[in-house]
Each structure stands twice: as C-alpha cells, then as structure tokens.
Amino acid sequence: MEETAELLPIIGLNWDEVKIPLVISLWILFAGIAKIGFHYANRVAPRVPECCLLICLGLIVGGIIYAVRDDHLFTPHTFFLIILPPIVLEAGYFMPKDAFFNNIGTILTYAIIGTLINSFATGLSLYGVYKAGLMPGLDDSHDRPMGILECLLFGTIICAVDPVAVIAVFEEIHVNAVLYICVFGESLLNDGVAVVLYKVYESFLEMPDGSVNATNIFRAVLKFFVVAGGGTLMGIVFGFFGAFITKYTIHVRIIEPTFVFIVCYIAYLTAEC
C-alpha cells in the first residue's frame, strides 16, 4: 500500500510567535492615527481633551475585543517590560528639570507619603468592608478567604493616580508653575512607589502562611528604600553612560536616537533585574 505524500504548505501563519509584539505595534499605530484624526475634528478637539478621547477609544476597542474573544490575558510581563518603559521614558525626557528639582521636597512628600497613605487607606477600607460582610459573593469565587494582603495589593494597584486630564487642562489655562510641577512631578514618581509596593506585597503572598512578622515587615520597609534608591542609582549610571557615548557621535548623529532608546531601555531592564 503506497503512502500518501505530504504536501509542502505554500502559505503559513505563525500567529502565536508574533502575537504580542504585533498587537502592541498595531495598537500604537492605531492610537497614533487616532491622535492625528482628533486634531482634524474641529468641533470636538477644542471642547474635549485629547486624553479623554483616547480613553473613549480604548473603551471601544476593548469592548470589541471582549465581544469577539473568549480568552483575555494581559500578563504583568507584557505590562512591565513592553508597555511601561516607553511611558516612563517619555515622562522623564520631557520633564521640566529645573522646576522639578527646585520643588523636589514637596514632590517627594506627595509621591511617597501621599501614595503610601492612599494605598493603606484604600486597602484597609476594602478589608474592613469585606470583614463586615458587605461582599458576600466574593468567597464563592475563590478557594480561600480574602486576606489583608490581597486588599493592600488591590489598594496599591489603584492608588497611583495619573492626572493626565488635569495636567492637560493646566497646560491649556497656564496655571501657576509651582502647582503644575507639583502635580506633574507627583504623577511621575507615584507610579514607581506603587510598583515597589506591589512587588513587596506580591513577595509576601508567595511566602508561606505565618511569614508576615515584625522581621519581614522591617525587611519590606528596607527593601522599599533599597529598590527605590537602587533604581535611582541605575538611572544616574546609565545617564552618564549615555551622555559619554553621545559625546563621540558628532559625525554620526543619525544613531543618537537609537542610543537614547537603547540605553534607557537597558537601564530600565537592569533596574528590573
């Protein structure tokens, strides 16, 4: 009996291999085209902030994806290593440096102490509501009761408010420079504080029960300052390295943008290690 020869496929799709970078690239392209279109909408652009239009666009696209697909997976790996780095780079690159460092004390107070208070208040309030029995259906959908660490983790996720619309309005009406830089600077740093808190609580959740004691709480506080200080040190070191490299690119200016992006991204990845 003769075996049937297998035919060589002429066209093939490797969707699983390129899915994540392709979807992100298409989304960035789509958002860029939408930003261009917003500025040509003469009736809408002067009345509605651009960031609000982008949020509405995201809700529409997200609703379409939710209606079309059954599985929805947005991993922390995708967020921290692909989506977040360009946001951090853009915010730091266009930061008004002089005004920022002149008001660094006020900004750090709002960003660190304010974010901590917001995180603890939200998490503890949620835990109090849960223990009061006002969330009865929550235990039915989980294998174990919700603990205080889960509530604090949730509080950390939503405590880093990014006042994009407020900053856009401030730029349009030209508010006091100190008020603007305090709000803008706090929005830059509170994300980092929230990320460090998130990783601390995540480490606690991965540890065995009974590991949350005075010693580990002290180590968590120490870890908070070590991670924050280490990230700052990494930024300073790679900043000097990037400045040193671009010092010798006077005859090849075309590669300077590449060095800026690569050095900043390597600094981010090194700090994440």
From TrEMBL:
Location, primary (coarse class): membrane
Subcellular location: Membrane
Keywords associated with the record: Antiport, Ion transport, Membrane, Sodium, Sodium transport, Transmembrane, Transmembrane helix, Transport
Keyword set includes Ion transport: yes
Entry GO terms, CC: plasma membrane
GO molecular function: potassium:proton antiporter activity; sodium:proton antiporter activity
Topological relation to the membrane, as annotated: Multi-pass membrane protein
Transmembrane segments: 20-38, 50-68, 74-95, 107-127, 147-170, 221-245, 252-271
Domain Cation/H+ exchanger transmembrane, chain residue ranges per copy: 33-273
Database matches in Pfam families: Na_H_Exchanger
Keyword Transmembrane helix belongs to the record: yes
Similarity comment text for this entry: Belongs to the monovalent cation:proton antiporter 1 (CPA1) transporter (TC 2.A.36) family.
Protein name: Sodium/hydrogen exchanger
Protein source organism: Oikopleura dioica (Tunicate)
